[in-house]
Specification:
Blueprint: H1 2-7, H2 14-33, H3 47-71, E1 76-77, E2 80-81, H4 95-105, H5 112-129, H6 132-149
Antiparallel strand pairs: 1-2
Helix pairs in contact: 2-3, 3-4, 3-5, 4-5, 5-6
């Protein structure tokens, strides 16, 4: 979504990128909150699985935006350098929760690389905020993910 809008010249800053992703993120929240008895878009049998998927999708969208913010003026999308936000506006209180939720959606047995990606981003966010103990905890969790994945490496799908 960001690359398509950027290629069309609609995105020139991180604020524009956030605005471009907001409708997609909001639609996942709407589906997650939908009552299968009142909403034809949601199959009642898929409701529990769909809610988890929608929460994870929102967390992943948040994670991508957090990664872009942490890059600052080095953020380039589809050949376009995005102007950074004011550093005081880089981090929000819910960022850590979103990254942790994105990491927890991927289990070490099947998707260790994706889990480590979000944990390393969480570490970078903690470093940005000066929370060194939390950054170390993120690295320890990454190491635990790797050690838990070793017995399952032959089963891990890689694109």
């Amino acid at each position: 979504e960001i690359a398509l809008c950027s290629g069309s010249g609609l995105i020139s800053s991180l604020d524009d990128a956030e605005k471009a992703l907001w409708p997609l993120r909001r639609s996942f929240a709407d589906i997650e909150d939908a009552n299968p008895l009142d909403d034809d878009r949601v199959d009642p049998q898929l409701s529990p699985l769909l809610a988890e998927f929608c929460r994870a999708a929102q967390a992943i969208i948040d994670g991508v935006l957090i990664e872009m913010r942490l890059r600052g003026d080095h953020c380039i999308v589809a050949g376009t350098r995005l102007s950074p936000k004011n550093p005081e506006k880089y981090a929000f209180d819910a960022d850590e929760e979103s990254l942790f939720e994105a990491a927890n959606f991927f289990v070490p047995e099947t998707a260790p690389l994706q889990r480590v990606r979000w944990l390393v981003t969480l570490k970078a966010l903690h470093e940005f905020k000066g929370n060194w103990v939390e950054a170390a905890e993120s690295l320890i969790t990454s190491a635990r993910t790797i050690s838990d994945a070793i017995p399952h490496l032959k089963d891990v799908w890689r694109p």
